[in-house]
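notes to self, project folder thing:

trying the whole complex as one job this time. last attempt i did each chain seperately and stitching them together was a nightmare. two parts in total, labels are on each line so i dont mix them up again. if this works i'll redo the older ones the same way
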Amino acid sequence: MECRATARSLSDYLDGWISADEARSVEAHLTGCPACRSLKMELTELKNAARELPLHTPSKAMWARIINEIEADRSGQWQPVGEDAGEGTWWEKFKSRRFSFSLPQLAGAGALAVAVAVFGYSSLDSPGQTGRLNLAGARTAVLPDEDQLIREFDRRMAAINARKASWDPQMRADFESQMNRIDQSLSKCRQMLNEKPDDKVHQEMVRSLHKEKIQLVNDVERLKW
Amino acid sequence: MVNLDKTLLPAFLLALLICAPALGQGRDFRVKPKESSLEVINQVGTIRVTAGAPGSKKVQINHKKVSGDAKIDYSSEDDKKIKVEVTGKGTVDFEIVVPPSLDVDLLSYKGAIFVSDLTGDIKARITTSGNITFTGMRSKKVEAHGSTGNVSFTGELQDEGRYTLKSFSGRIDATLPADSDFRLSASTFGGVIDLGGFAMKFERQTNQLVEASSGKGRASVKLWSQEGSIHLHRKP
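result (full assembly):
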């Protein structure tokens, strides 16, 4: 496997969305390629950082502003805020517009930009391949209740993340290490499930591992750090 | 001449003050065993629960601070729900004696749990590392959930009893009388399943999953270790 192909598969590899054969090829390449190992490390850190980002719900005022602007745009009443804005091409109008973003919005936009960049990079040399989006759909199809388990975990983890900074460093390291172990195992089981989507044993294992993650969060809630 | 009393007494008192937390403290509670329960939430350290005399109505809890500045809170709702909770950083070991039929719920972030000779419902959970060990059990409901540590159960199964032993990467051992009547569900991803010579009637059997019955399947035994092995043992 070459560097370009490895880079293309790396994100799916970390999420457990590739076949066992493909995973072995990625691992074999990583063993002998420091550059791809480094890329893998960066991507892992990025995924971990994204997981730690708090969830933000846009305010009602913000939604109202967005809806108004869409409506105005639809009805051709779109007006730029900039003082110099007037008649001209859409690009001139766009340039004259003033934008302001809060920190969470910028963080979200940054994460989206990285996701788009990684997706774009992974799509190189593969015209017509829909890549991860279809795989995500396939994942949902083989395990319909998985999204619900992930949502429950994310919801509870968001509350935990808000106070994680105050934890004892050793306790935090133990928690994260355990979470990583479960994630790695989950990744392996999902690879197996990709090979045989109807395998009830691996479906149950994936469910058990999601529940294991939720149990870990439950414990920390009970322990009241 | 040095007055030993005056010199040594303050030193002795100072030493006692420093060592007191390590020497052990605790609380006793009077309970109604069939109506009461005990919950212990520890951060780091060992929890050991043993059965008192049959018919006893006393819960004796001794704790020993091994290190750190952990705080131990005791609470009781009408002597029915006793709760012991450790907060702060530090290692605390518990030695607890309970009426045999008391329901017990134990949680430790890190450290071992030992439970012996009880007949009440038992829950034991270790979040990270540490082994869970049950000996001489006659409970109708046991739930043990380890993480990287092993889970070991020795005891008699009760009709209609439910026994769930889980660990993410530790080994599971269940030692049961040879004539035990139970329905088994055992699954592992990275380990092996060893049925220890029990004569089983199989419903499903693969390297990773066994669903089978011994006898009429009166009790339910669920064993799971994602990465560790599962072993049943026949007790003659």
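what i see at first glance: Residues 137 and 144 of chain A are 10 Å apart (CA to CA).
need to look closer tmrw
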